Amino acid sequence: MDEAASFDEFVHQHQQALVRYAVLLSGARADAEDLVQEVLTRVYPRWAEVSGSAGSAYAYVRRAITNEYLSWRRRWSTRHIWPAGSELPEREHLDPLRDEHDERLWQLLRELPRQQRAAVVLRYYEDLDDTEIAGILGCRQTTVRAHVSRGLAALRSAIAMPERAWRNHE
């Protein structure tokens, strides 16, 4: 199978899963699709190397998406100008199909720092262990455990907050 066909097959098999993963990181489908497209565009010229390596091509692309997400927000803020008084970009991406309870959980997840959010998503959505997450985030396993622990503590604390107090917190 040639490189282009191999890459096309990979995208066909994994694009939806990669976009779902990126949605959990970015909080918005449009941003997630942009993240995945950006990473796939960068990976394509080196596809023979990526697909022929000892590790999984999916794991490689997932790590690239994570890294792009972690650095993308910093670059994104310098490329986009928002008029004074407008809401922050992350708050405007609401999915009308989610119910109020889901929206609260999404909002709480979006409020976590990027590293904590990535660690929580990798642990509970991608079902990875500390070693795998540490490899993706480029940190130690103890740091992964700290990110997950702090992220979960922040989510538990916010979830325990009464609904009325949470609405006023926004």
Automatic annotation (TrEMBL):
InterPro entries in the cross-refs: RNA_pol_sigma-70-like, RNA_pol_sigma-70_dom, RNA_pol_sigma-E_actinobac, RNA_pol_sigma70_r2, RNA_pol_sigma70_r4_t2, RNA_pol_sigma_r2, RNA_pol_sigma_r3/r4-like, WH-like_DNA-bd_sf
Keywords assigned: DNA-binding, Sigma factor, Transcription, Transcription regulation
Pfam families per UniProt: Sigma70_r2 (PF04542), Sigma70_r4_2 (PF08281)
Ranges of residues in domain RNA polymerase sigma factor 70 region 4 type: 103-155
Domain (RNA polymerase sigma-70 region) ranges: 11-75
Family matches, as CDD domains: Sigma70_r4
Signal peptide: none
Endoplasmic reticulum found in the keyword field: no
Family under the similarity heading: Belongs to the sigma-70 factor family. ECF subfamily.
NCBIfam families: SigE-fam_strep, sigma70-ECF
Protein name per its UniProtKB record: RNA polymerase sigma-70 factor (Sigma-E family)
Organism, scientific name: Kutzneria viridogrisea
Upper taxonomic lineage: Bacteria, Bacillati, Actinomycetota, Actinomycetes, Pseudonocardiales
